[in-house]
Write a structure and sequence with these properties.
Blueprint (H helix, E strand, L loop, with lengths): L4 H17 L15 H14 L17 E14 L2 E8 L2 E7 L5 H8 L6 E10 L5 E12 L15 H6 L1 H7 L1 H23 L3 E2 L5 E2 L11 E4 L4 E5 L4 H9 L4 E9 L11 E10 L3 H20 L3 E4 L2 E4 L5 E4 H9 L9 H10 L10 H13 L7 E7 L15 E9 L2 E8 L4 H16 L10 H8 L5 E7 H9 L18
Helix pairs in contact: 5-6, 6-8, 6-14, 9-11, 10-11, 12-13
């Protein structure tokens, strides 16, 4: 009869009590290891190189000058072979094998009986290589560092239940080494982005997460109440408005990498809580930002992955510059067959879309219909990196109009592998026009709920003091990591994604 989880828990609690009865603390406060698993293996290789090939030795007759080490980690496998026990030990750097012989102190032999897969132990001894060439520590002393009362997933190296993987990410990291690799790469990507911007003279800053009004994007906010101030705040939906205040204040180049929160839908490319990079540069426009992005992304890929050519899904994507530049109007017309400029009203564009059997949400305004056309028909087809440029004014309330174009602003979105990874524009710095845009945006978007929302008056006041010509950039770090690690879902690159409550 296969033991249940409750049976295993009970057995492990009994072993915990047996350990305590030996006078051993099963959860000691610290352990001093001399090497990580990887470092211990490297030390053995160095010793072998200096020894010009080690003579064969038995486990009972190790050479006295074999290197000594102490390692610590989680037990991931335990195998008994006669009087010898082998344990696979894994730490953050990798795996090393431990050998427990019958010459161990009797109290340690007794402790070994109570060690299970999943426990953390520390062990010291001499390094050698077995006949199967496995780097191994011949254990002389060891101690329990943390008793695991829950068993690891069945076949711990193959946890595949997506729901468990996301809800209990710690099990996912234990069971699937490739998942841990994704997040190591993520860390290096963020570090490389920071280094790139720092080298270009940008200053990293921090701006408030709690804000008096939601601004900088067209998105629904999360609302919370501040007890001490007795007022409501929103969690930020963008970093933009505070960063541009800093440009007004005299910083020429600023950036922030931070969490933002949007109280909207969840999909494979959308999360209500995600990481956003925003940068702002005075005396620049969206052309300067395009050049920066097509330099930044391939350089980050080269530094982190060793190549600017990556796989995403079934496609090979070459991130090298120059990237293609295509007007949003041309892209939508090319891939959907609709020239949205010829249908300047929501009703007219809706009628045209329905005539082509394209489903249309009647509540969507003209700008949202255009965005739907772009996302449905154009974006998935753009595999090699490209800039979609020059957007309608109504889609970009914070962007500056293109000279000589009343209905178009200087904005771009960067797309690669069918993923939207960046959004940028020449910033609107006319405070009078900015107020008009905000007011139009509220009337069109909010309708009867307008009284629930406010315009960021302090930001408009800041603009009235004067903001130089400025270009801004936003990059979704999660989507960039998706692209560079070839992951189809944003949940695969967020350590603890938001999930629906279990039914």
């Amino acid at each position: 009869m296969t033991p249940t989880i409750d049976d295993i828990n009970e057995q492990r609690k009994q072993k915990l009590n047996q350990v305590r009865s030996q006078g051993i603390d099963p959860y000691p406060k610290s352990y001093r290891r001399s090497h990580t698993a990887q470092d211990a293996v490297s030390r053995l290789k160095e010793f072998e190189a200096k020894s010009d090939g080690m003579p064969q030795v038995s486990t009972r007759n190790l050479l006295d000058d074999n290197p000594q080490t102490s390692v610590a980690g989680r037990v991931t496998a335990k195998r008994k072979m006669g009087k010898i026990v082998f344990i696979d030990l894994r730490d953050g750097s990798g795996k090393i094998q431990l050998l427990f012989g019958d010459r161990l102190n009797p109290s340690l032999i007794e402790l070994l009986k109570n060690i299970d897969v999943g426990d953390f132990i520390g062990a010291s001894g001499r390094l050698f290589r077995t006949k199967t060439q496995e780097p191994t520590v011949a254990v002389q002393e060891f101690t329990l560092l943390a008793k695991s009362l829950q068993p690891l997933p069945e076949k711990w190296h193959g946890l595949s239940d997506t729901e468990i993987r996301y809800r209990q990410r710690y099990l996912d990291l234990i069971a699937n080494s490739e998942v841990k690799d994704i997040f190591l790469v993520r860390s290096r990507i963020v570090a490389a982005v920071r280094q790139f911007l720092d080298r270009r003279g940008f200053i990293e800053v921090e701006t408030p997460v709690l804000q008096a009004s939601a601004g900088g994007a067209l998105a629904a906010p999360f609302v919370t109440h501040h007890n001490a101030l007795d007022r409501d705040f929103t969690l930020r939906i963008a970093l933009e408005l505070h960063l541009k205040r800093l440009i007004v204040g005299g910083f020429d180049k600023v950036y922030e990498i931070g969490r933002v929160f949007r109280n909207e839908g969840i999909s494979t490319t959308h999360s209500p809580e995600y990481t956003l990079l925003e940068s702002y540069e005075a005396y620049a426009d969206y052309n300067d930002v395009m050049e920066m992005v097509e330099e930044m992304i391939p350089r980050v890929s080269q530094e982190v992955l060793g190549t600017p050519e990556i796989k995403y899904g079934e496609n090979t994507v070459n991130l090298k510059s120059p990237w293609r530049r295509i007007a949003l109007r041309d892209a939508v017309r090319e891939y959907s067959g609709i020239d949205f400029v010829k249908y300047p009203t929501a009703a007219g564009l809706m009628e045209k879309m329905r005539s082509m059997n394209i489903e249309v949400d009647p509540d969507k305004n003209w700008a949202k219909q255009v965005d739907e056309l772009y996302k449905t028909f154009a974006r998935p087809k753009i595999i090699q990196p490209a800039f979609l440029i020059d957007y309608p004014v109504s889609m970009s309330p914070l962007a500056k109009k293109k000279p000589g174009e009343e209905r178009v602003v200087e904005r771009f979105q960067a797309v690669a592998g069918g993923l939207e990874i960046a959004n940028a524009y020449s910033e609107l710095n006319d405070p009078i026009e900015q107020r008009q845009r905000f007011e139009e945006q509220m009337k069109e978007r909010l309708g009867a709920d307008e009284e629930k929302w406010t315009i960021d008056e302090d930001y408009l006041t800041a603009l009235e003091y004067g903001m130089p010509p400025t270009a801004g950039l936003g990059i979704g770090i999660d989507r960039l990591v998706m692209l560079l690690t070839n992951q189809p879902s944003i949940r695969e690159v967020i350590l603890f994604p938001q999930l629906r409550e279990k039914g």
